[in-house]
UniProtKB/TrEMBL annotation:
Domain N-acetyltransferase: 3-156
Molecular function terms, GO-annotated: acyltransferase activity, transferring groups other than amino-acyl groups
Keyword flag Nucleus: no
Alphabetized InterPro entries for the sequence: Acyl_CoA_acyltransferase (IPR016181), GNAT_dom (IPR000182), N-acetyltransferase (IPR051531)
Alphabetized Gene3D superfamilies for the sequence: 3.40.630.30
Pfam family, one: Acetyltransf_1
Keywords, ordered alphabetically: Transferase
Protein name per the record: GNAT family N-acetyltransferase
Domain of life: Bacteria
């Protein structure tokens, strides 16, 4: 099984918009703990430094991630959305997909740290992100706890 992150194009945007964390399988404007992928894709058109990507396992679309410099935070690099479709949750795809994302960011070479905001009630997400090295900063932003992953450790 190969996990890849791919550009969202005219060929896959609609399927990406249909991904949902809802067990009903019906996407809503406001998913649990995050907004819908369609809203995120639209947001990226108004903030072109944001990078929405589709997550695939081999040729199967399984998730979505959007990252980039956050305009309301001095340009720090943030993961603004990350989700695995409800039918693929619980199979290790969340961690595998996010690990692939981190490796992609590391290859960029210019990003020193990744930030993410998490709802303190979203225990599954907190478990996922801390398992790949994110640490709670003690800060809150927009009602979420801020976590950070240092990609380049300061030599001291």
């Amino acid at each position: 099984m190969s996990i890849t992150l791919r550009e969202i194009t005219a060929d896959n945007y609609y399927e990406v918009c249909l991904l949902t964390t809802n067990k009903s399988g019906v996407p809503t404007f406001d998913e649990e703990f995050l907004c819908s992928n369609s809203v995120s894709i639209a947001e990226s058109k108004y903030y072109p430094l944001l990078n929405p990507q589709a997550i695939y396992s081999d040729q199967t679309l399984i998730g979505f991630v959007m990252s980039g410099p956050y305009f309301r935070d001095n340009g720090n690099f943030w993961v603004l959305r990350y989700m695995i479709d409800h039918q693929y949750q619980g199979n290790g795809f969340g961690k595998k997909g996010f690990t692939a994302f981190i490796e992609q960011v590391k290859r960029n070479g210019s990003i020193e740290r990744i930030y993410i905001g998490l709802d303190p009630d979203n225990k599954r997400a907190i478990s996922l992100y801390t398992s790949v090295g994110f640490e709670f900063t003690g800060e809150r932003k927009d009602g979420e706890d801020v976590y950070i992953l240092e990609l380049i450790k300061n030599a001291s």
